[in-house]
Amino acid sequence: FCSHPRVKELLFKEDWWCVWIGSFSVCCLALSVGIGAENGLIPAPAIWKHSPRSSIETSSSFSSNTVILGLLSLLLWMLCLLSLLIPPILAFKRRIKDFAPAFVVVFLLAATARVVGSQKLLRQYGLTSTVWSLLLGLITVNVVARKYPAVLRFLRPCSKMGEFFIKIALVLLCVELTTLFSYGLPALIVS
Predict the structure, then answer these.
(1) Who contacts 29 (Cβ-Cβ below 8 Å, separation ≥6)?
(2) Which whole number is the average pLDDT over 22-36?
(3) Which band of pLDDT confidence, cut at 50, 70 and 90, is reported for residue 40?
(4) What's the DSSP call for residue 27?
């Protein structure tokens, strides 16, 4: 089954894994619209003015402690993304035990950038999550990693997959999932 060149290409080429992951993500998004994910199951930081805590709070009526629910949904999202990346990591003959901890750190850096980039005044001046992601990445590599080279070695398994992550983003049309929610089913069909 796996010896045919076409099958090998579909299972072991980075470009095809981007298509599989992107397609699976769009299917999951289509299913989540049906169960009301636009109301807080997929975490996206809210715009905040005074306290970053309000960025992680969910507008859910399930619990009185909405911060814990927001953090749990973020943790669940991280675990879903990590589990989605396990098959390509194995196909690329990389070690999951090296990749997973580095992915967690990179995910937390990205989540921090999203929360900071959601601050109302900073957004008005164009300092969105993209800028904060770049700044946190530059600080991590040029300041922290220079003083502690072990940090760079620790993050390398995840950073080597940067091109792969960019390809997945291109497959997903470079559109935030929350943007697709605002257009509903027609946007999912087009994507």
Answers:
(1) 37, 177, 180, 188
(2) 66
(3) very low
(4) H
Query: Which residues pair with residue 119 across a beta bridge?
Result: 48
Provide the β-strand partners of residue 48: 119
Predicted model pTM: 0.73
Q: At what angle do helices 162-171 and 14-34 cross, to 10 degrees?
A: 50
The percentage of residues in the chain with a pLDDT greater than 90, rounded to a whole number, is 15
Spell out a b/e string for 95-118, using b for 16 or more CB atoms within 10 Å of the CB, else e.
eeeebbebbeebbebbbbbbbbbb
pLDDT digit string (tens) for 129-182? 889 999 998 999 899 888 999 998 999 999 888 888 877 877 776 555 566 666
Which tokens go with 143? 């300041």
Q: How far is CA 16 from CA 8, 13, 22, 96, in A?
A: 10, 6, 10, 20
3 state SS for 31-96: HHHHCCHHHCCCCCCCCECCCCHHHHCCCCCCCCCHHHHHHHHHHHHHHHHHHHHHHHHHHCCCCH
Fill in the DSSP letter of residue 175. -
